[in-house]
Amino acid sequence: MEQAMSIEALQQKRYKSLLVSKKAARMHPEEYRAAREIVRHVISNTIDISHYESTAKKLARLLEILMQDTSESIFSYFHENIDPRKQGRPGFLRVMCIDLDRQMECIDQVRADDLKPRVITFDHFRRNNDSETPLP
Fold this sequence. Notes:
Layout: H1 7-27, H2 29-44, H3 49-67, H4 74-82, H5 93-114, H6 122-128
């Protein structure tokens, strides 16, 4: 029987997964944005059953690109459960997209937390500005 992981170990595994996913989003920004658009479209609109397979396959292709560098990203889980050639089912597409959207929000939060804001003062600007005219 497999031993249960501690809460701390699960939190560390989750954070590592978010970091790997953040890296994938940074390496493939167009695919990340496109996947986000599809996810939000599925959440906010009715998807006709005749469009389910093409929509799910397109999203699965984007997720496959995002997970190609590592299987430890969250994208591998969603790829497996959205792709209609694997475990993806029409009745679960919207639910999976809602969950994926929330996970992408967490990735974006980790990305935002990494940004280090800089305070630029007027004096700093004047030193780097070649003109001698003061700003209004």
